[in-house]
Task: inverse folding
């Protein structure tokens, strides 16, 4: 390779050595707060008996299940159809609590602070297209 | 919104460029190329098809090369 | 070089290279899919393909980018370079599968053209966190396409090697775009520590390798330039071993008749003509530390061309250097009797 091209190579990588770690670090800094609770799928969830509320749309059935000795209050989302978007995030009172995957039932645990200030707003958002797919409000 | 209509224009210009590129590229890799690269004369059709994606993308450059080279006696 | 183009100039090594490559790719896809099914049992086939092809293409790009600097750091890595272009084309194909599935799954469900949808469905172009990362992937894929499409020798010749090389240096831009594509895309959506860690490790590896290869190359060039500068005006004569101990090699350089003597790990050069009766000094020997003319025994010190006192005859002297076991002489003469340091080997 010609020395001139070598020189360009070196300059590019010196620049990249500066820019890439910088943008890498910035991308890590803006990461949404990590979700501490995992998404519970059908087989993993322990269902509490009493359903407090149910709301339905053409593609979702959302239920709030009452707490018992074993489990805190649960949000149960049933996907009636496969999602049209590959990633759907669930926001409870504007706080990210997890994501929806394939068709089926998803459970999210709600602690007492999350059910302290009714009414409750549930948003399903598509983070890739930055769109709100569904908003549901619960009045206890 | 102005910006969105610009995106439409650019994307359709991109499609147009590729469609024209595909047609011109076909002609280039099978016929036109012989004028400026004699090594291509004995190339197989498989080799020519292998060059087609590049020709469809860089057809403007190849066409310019074609115009610049005077036709040779055969 | 043949006088016609072939589709691929196959040979045994290339076939072996490609077999290893395809085998490795298949193994990766298999292991990745099994792990996905294990940890995300509800994953859809489309999402599985998107994840598998995306990560595989990114991994293959890392391998490609390591090959160049590795071969410059150590020649043992040369075989990796052997069919790098097939590795590049394969990377593009895997990346294109990833892109196509994304386009279908994310952007082909509405009434808008999929590519237009790609650009306008998320318009947070001024945001960092919400940046439309898919656009970055699109442009990286465009670069990989251009490189794959022009990988045949036909393009190397018709674009001219310089233009071709510059076009293919766009891969560095593609890499940067893809690092951002991953960090602002998959990593933000998944918040997976392992993806952050792996991307970071890849970044350190790639940038580190390129910087160290570039530094090494710069040192080599500098050493070469220094050697050139030091040896400017000098002519290569012979290997040190070609001159017998206490004997000389005679050379004509720029009209100068020069005798180059070897003695006690040193080399010195003096004019080859004896001041007494123009005898060929280079045919003589060094006796008692003095060059001795074969004709009448006139003597001179090799370092300064002076006869030992009380004699006053003097020879012109020349600069000598020994570089890598070779003797170099500068034929510009110093005034007779000028002391010049001997070249030590």
Result:
């Amino acid at each position: 390779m010609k020395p001139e091209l070598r020189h360009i190579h070196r300059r590019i990588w010196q620049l990249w050595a500066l820019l890439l770690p910088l943008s890498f670090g910035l991308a890590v800094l803006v990461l949404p707060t990590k979700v501490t609770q995992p998404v519970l799928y059908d087989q993993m969830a322990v269902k509490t008996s009493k359903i407090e509320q149910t709301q339905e749309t053409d593609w979702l059935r959302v239920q709030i299940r009452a707490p018992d000795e074993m489990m805190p209050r649960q949000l149960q989302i049933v996907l009636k159809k496969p999602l049209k978007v590959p990633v759907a995030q669930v926001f409870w009172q504007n706080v990210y609590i997890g994501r929806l995957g394939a068709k089926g039932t998803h459970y999210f645990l709600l602690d007492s602070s999350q059910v302290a200030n009714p009414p409750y707003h549930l948003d399903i958002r598509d983070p890739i297209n930055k769109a709100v797919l569904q908003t549901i409000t619960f009045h206890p | 919104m102005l910006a969105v209509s610009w995106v439409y224009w650019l994307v359709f210009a991109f499609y147009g460029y590729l469609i024209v590129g595909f047609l011109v590229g076909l002609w280039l890799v099978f016929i036109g190329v012989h004028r400026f690269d004699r090594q291509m004369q004995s190339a197989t059709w498989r080799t020519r098809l292998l060059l087609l994606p590049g020709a469809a993308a860089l057809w403007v450059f190849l066409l310019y090369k074609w115009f610049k080279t005077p036709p040779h006696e055969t | 070089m043949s006088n016609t183009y072939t589709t691929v100039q196959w040979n045994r090594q290339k076939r072996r290279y490609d077999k290893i490559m395809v085998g490795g790719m298949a193994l990766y896809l298999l292991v990745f899919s099994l792990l996905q099914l294990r940890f995300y049992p509800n994953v859809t086939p489309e999402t599985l393909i998107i994840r598998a092809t995306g990560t595989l293409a990114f991994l293959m790009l890392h391998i490609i980018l390591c090959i160049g600097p590795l071969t410059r750091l150590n020649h043992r890595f040369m075989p990796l370079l052997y069919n790098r272009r097939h590795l590049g084309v394969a990377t593009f194909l895997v990346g294109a599968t990833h892109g196509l599935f994304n386009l279908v799954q994310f952007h082909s469900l509405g009434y808008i053209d999929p590519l237009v949808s790609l650009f306008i469905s998320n318009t947070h172009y001024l945001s960092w966190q919400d940046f439309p990362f898919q656009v970055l992937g699109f442009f990286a894929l465009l670069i990989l396409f251009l490189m794959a499409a022009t990988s045949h020798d036909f393009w190397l010749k018709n674009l001219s090697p310089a233009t071709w090389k510059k076009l293919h240096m766009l891969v560095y831009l593609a890499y940067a775009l893809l690092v951002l594509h991953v960090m602002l895309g998959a990593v933000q959506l998944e918040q997976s520590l392992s993806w952050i860690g792996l991307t970071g490790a890849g970044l350190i590896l790639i940038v580190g390798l390129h910087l160290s290869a570039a530094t090494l190359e710069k040192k080599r060039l500098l050493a070469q330039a220094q050697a050139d500068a030091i040896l400017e005006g000098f002519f290569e004569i012979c290997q040190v071993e070609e001159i017998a101990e206490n004997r000389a090699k005679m050379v004509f350089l720029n009209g100068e008749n020069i005798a180059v003597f070897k003695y006690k790990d040193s080399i010195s050069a003096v004019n080859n003509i004896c001041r007494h009766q123009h005898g060929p000094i280079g045919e003589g020997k060094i006796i008692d530390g003095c060059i001795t003319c074969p004709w009448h025994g006139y003597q001179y010190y090799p370092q300064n061309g002076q006869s030992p006192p009380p004699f006053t005859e003097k020879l012109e002297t020349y600069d000598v250097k020994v570089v890598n076991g070779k003797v170099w002489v500068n034929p510009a003469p110093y005034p007779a009797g000028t002391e010049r340091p001997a070249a030590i080997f």
